[in-house]
Amino acid sequence: MKTAAPKPSSRVARPPRLARALLRIAAPPDDRTFLVADLDDEFTERHRDQSPRSARAWYRAQVARSLGPLIRGRWQSRRRRRAASSPKGTGVMRLIRDLRFAVRSLTISRAHTAVAVLTLAAGIGVNVAVFSVLDSVLLRPLPFPEADRLVRLWNLQLPQGFSYDAFSPAVVSAWRRQTDIVDRVEATASASFVYEGPSGASMTSGAYATPELFSLLGARPLLGRVFAAGDGRSGSAHRAVVSETFWRRELAADRTAVGRRLRLDGEDFEIVGIVPAAFRFPTELQEIWVPYDVEQPPAEINAGARFSAIARRRAGLTAADAADRVKARGPGVLIEAGQPPSPQSRGTLTARAVNVEDSIDARTTRSLWVLAGAVGFLLLIVCANVASLMLSRALARVRDLAVRSALGAARRDLVRATLIEQGLIALTGAVAGAGVASLILRATTAALPDSITMRAFNVVDLDTRALLFLIIATATTMLLVCLPPVLIATKATVADILRHESRSATGSAGARRLRSGLVIVEVALALVLLVGAALMARSVIKLHQIDIGLDAEGLVTTQIAMPQRGFDTAAARDLFVDALLARLRTTPDVVAAAAGALPPHKTAISYGPIERAVLPGDLSKPVMTPAYEVSPDYFRAAGIRIVDGRDFALASTEPAVIVSSGFAARQWPGQKAVGQRFRVGNGEWLTVVGVAAEVREMSEDDTTGDTEVYYPRGGLKGAMYATAATSQIAAYETILIRTSRPELAAQIVARAVREVDARVVVSRTTLAAHQFAQSIARPRIVLLLMSVFAAFGLVLAAGGIYGVLSCQVTQRLREIGLLPA
Question: What pTM does this model have?
Fold first, then answer.
């Protein structure tokens, strides 16, 4: 049975309106009428021969298939019209074309590109690394909110002119009431805590802090919280904030550490928060902070009476006005705090702005600027070297540039292409330089002396300011490096080809002068660095030749902390020290052992006018004299020579002292000091029984030694001690041992201490040679860096000379050599 064919439709054929509208929009204007009419005719025939539904479906399918090609055709037509109106193409297309050409060109000459990039990376990386140190230590603003309004309070002794930042809690509290000068006053007191961890007891640096100190300095906790009002009073003082460094080292970075207990000074403290490692106040040594409210001091904590006060002056009050007001009101504040200044000292107070000048000495500042100048010279040498390299390459390509110019290339096109090629090298060198800077900082930050890193409030790292400097250095380098090739590109003509083809051509006179000038600059800058390194080497050699006054070979110092329990009396402490020294003297490899601090580090200071018995009543100005309590055999163990007189007698009870030769020369010039008598302030009369050699550091700051006075143990009275008792520690003591195996000294002392009394904690053990070497750490590290920079600059200068000579020989090969067949 056959199916009947569909009957033709008698209705008017009307294509789908939406599809027809899309076709008219996508079709090119010139072909729109023809395309639409042709498709309409086909639709009409199909509408007549087939059903309307199938005709409309066909129409939609045809439009759908045509839209893609039509849109692409219109876009390509528009591009052709734009290209016709601008024969050289659009700016973006030209840039893309030049970039592709530059990449191909640099890829072909891979050795040339690698040398240029590596040289730039080294020069830029060293500059960024040194800038990061300089910026972190000297230039970067302090990382505290409203840092320009922060000031430190100082005790100022007017007649003597020296100052120190040591206050009792009562003085800090009295200053808080001076609201017309300061908005807030907070304080810290450095301390050492005995931390009892899983591996045993150890000494940890920390500080007592007023509760609002963290908020004043804008410290935000990494975990938990910082101290708040109410902390640090009786019942709420056993809390602690720890640093991120301590958290990672001792607590294994446990994120549940907040709320745990720390065993400090024999008591439990609750961890309330963890602050980032970037927070360093008062120094970067502190790892644990314990709250201490100066308004209501906790009875269960003995934090001592030496607080450093930091205040924020009132808005609208300049630093000079604040200092004047603090100075004028100082005596009244001391009287209000119950500590009236004595008539002799006329003590008062002053304020200084909190800035890097307070913590970084002038010599360190000068050293950093010297390093900055050295790396600046090094960058100029790098720029001259790379510019010479680029110039040689540009001269070799002058034929190509001239041909392109003859074929119609505009001069700006040649310059643009040259700039893009050199810019790619500079940018690649900058990116690599950032990596070099990061590696240098990681390798050298730990080697930097404590006088630089420990006194900086900012962390030495690559931050936004360092990256900005990287951009500026890259832009400057790009300008200096691109200039010679650009000059060649602007003067490339067909005539250059003819000169280049001659047998005696060595480039234009301008190109020769430019190459020679770059070599001269390289050599001159390298010589400057070499002379600077030689001068630094001479200074360091002179420092090494200083007679430090003792024999540091095999000498080791160890500080021990005796707890309050069992050592609360001087007799108990002396008994332990005598037993420990006796135990050490019987230990193999120990030549001598004694108790007493090693100059020039001061553990106690006697202060007051010195009165000599030969001139009774003739008082000198009050002076600060380093005082040392030493045991018998101290001078033999320390290797300090007795230049006149004798050592302390083993059973001497007389008030005898041994003075340094510097002290003797100042007090009794031209006279024999042994047998002289003197006293400090209103203290007892002391008899000089010996004169010891001066002990001085190998430092530019200590070339004449100090005026040390040595007392027998128990004979020093009324002195100011650098370390004080705490709630757990009764006293600190320094033990000296001279051993043939100094590398085992820490184990020897720790074993002897455990055998005598395991309750005593060994704080730290230091080689005396290392201790004195630290005094010249800054000039030594500057010498090392200057030597490295000078050597690198010399290598670059030699490479630049070799490159210029090689280029000239290559250009004159037709004249002086044989070309291969």
Answer: 0.69
